[in-house]
Write a structure and sequence with these properties.
The chain has two helices and nine strands. By secondary structure, it is α/β, with parallel strands linked by helices. A hairpin with a 2-residue loop joins strand 6 and strand 7. The chain is globular and about 35 Å long.
Length: about 110
């Protein structure tokens, strides 16, 4: 089981954390939402729970709760700029279908 980051994603997270001035890593999860069923949750973590699974890639800790890990195993988090838009992209091999707006997915 693994969650990885591209160098671009890791650099962006490190920059955000430096600006924020605190935190132990990036929390990645899923929640029920949207027309396809699940949506990604991405936030900074100030602590690590005993039940969390922690991955480290390019010097950044990615913290995942066990329930979300089932849906996220093998995911690569990337950061991309396309024209005037920029943001994190989830390359998740478990996704079977995504909604048209790109906000949700199912496995």
């Amino acid at each position: 089981m693994a969650i990885t980051l591209t160098e671009a994603a890791a650099e962006r997270v490190r920059n955000f954390m430096e600006q924020r001035g605190k935190g132990v890593g990036l929390r990645l999860g899923v929640r029920t939402s949207g027309c396809s069923g699940m949506a990604y949750v991405l936030e900074f973590a100030d602590d690590i729970e005993d039940t969390d699974v922690v991955f480290e890639d390019h010097g950044v800790k990615v913290i995942v709760d066990p329930k979300s890990l089932v849906y996220l195993d093998g995911t690569e988090l990337d950061f991309a700029r396309e024209g005037l838009n920029e943001g994190f992209k989830f390359n998740n091999p478990n996704v079977k279908d995504e909604c048209g707006c790109g906000e949700s997915f199912n496995v």
